[in-house]
Amino acid sequence: MPVGCLETPVLAGSACLAVLGALVLYKGEPAGYGKYLESLMPASVRLSAGAAWFLQELPAFAVPLAILIQQSSFSFGTPGTMLLGLFCVHYFHRTFIYSIVTRGRPLPVVVIVRAFVFCLGNGLLQSYYLVYCAEYTSDWYTDIRFSLGVLLFLLGMGINIHSDHILHNLRKPGETAYKIPQGGLFTYVSGANFFGEIMEWFGYALATWSLPALSFALFSLCFLGLRAFHHHRFYLKMFEDYPKSRKVLIPFIF
Ligand code: NDX
């Protein structure tokens, strides 16, 4: 580890993410927003979906960006800053674009506050590791882990954005009803947007070859995998004509 890298907070932060993922699975309940808002958080104080996603995801964009700007004078173009740039691109979209195009239900303030803390902690962990701890040799750009990881990241991001786009277009502005998503990867799985996001973060873990990124990918797998499972159950209960061959999360497998 380079001088200036404190190993303990990196290990503690990574362990926290993995433990939170395990906790999510252990609880077995989806987080109380979206389809589960009324059943799990009936009396909550809420904020519109656009404002909620903007506020809660902002730290995951702003923290890495601030660190990148502060670092850019002497390390611009290194694999670490380039990879952190990809993280910023994801959260730029989630903070500034997703929050505008969403037609989702309002979110409980308690969920927003928790998500804000999560995004702040995760943004700090990923940035700190890549800027102060990761050591990449100059040939990392030609390493198969980097190339394959970035490819998976970009492919996953494409699937995620396309699938979210399908979901948003199921409703006209102001509508709140649920419909059967059709097209794209939804032909095969109920959690197409989640499949894309999970692929993205495993690609990122491969490209960065880092423990914090692997822990975040595992957290995403637990959190979004469970959400996909509940969404699938929700659809089967709600729609008699729900396609029987559609899987939960992984095409043809699960
Ligand atoms: N934000 C990641 N846990 C989360 C916010 C909540 O980015 O304390 C995890 C993220 C946070 C969570 C975050 C971490 C854990 C927290 C939790 C709150 C409590 C929890 C902090 C940070 C906690 C413990 C105790 C363990 C610490 O009406 P609607 O809103 O349902 O409308 C939806 C619409 N839609 C449909 N419309 C018509 N017909 C249909 N059939 C429809 N189906 C859906 O589409 C929405 O407007 C929209 C998408 O809905 P949905 O449910 O498919 O996705 P959603 O869960 O809202 O995620 C949106 C995007 C998606 O691309 C997903 O991949 C990404 O965000 N995401 C989300 C959550 C986490 C995450 C990524 C990640 O882990 N990487």
Record keyword descriptors for this entry:
single chain; 254 residues; mainly alpha; two-stranded antiparallel ribbon; 8 helices; globular; binds ligand NDX
Question: What is the compact description of this entry?
Answer:
With 254 residues, the protein is mainly alpha-helical. The chain is 67% helix and 2% strand.
Structure description:
- This protein is an all-alpha fold and 254 residues long.
- It has one domain.
- It is built from 8 helices and 2 strands; from the N terminus they run ααβααβαααα.
- The protein has helices at residues 7-27, 37-40, 49-75, 79-101, 109-133, 144-168, 192-208, 211-238, and strands at 46-47, 107-108.
- A two-stranded antiparallel sheet has the order 1-2.
- The chain is globular.
- The termini are far apart.
- The model has no long low-confidence stretch (mean pLDDT 96).
- It binds ligand NDX.
Helical percentage? 55-70%
Strand content: under 5%
Rounded mean pLDDT is 96
- How far do the termini sit from each other? 39 Å
Strand order of the largest sheet: 1-2
The count of strands amounts to 2
Largest beta-sheet details: 2 strands, antiparallel
Q: What's the SSE pattern?
A: HHEHHEHHHH
The residue ranges in which pLDDT falls below 50 over 5 or more consecutive positions are: none
Shape: globular
Radius of gyration: 19 Å
The molecules bound to the chains, other than polymers, are: ligand NDX
Secondary structural class: mainly alpha
- Number of domain modules: 1
How many helices? The count is 8
Oligomer: single chain
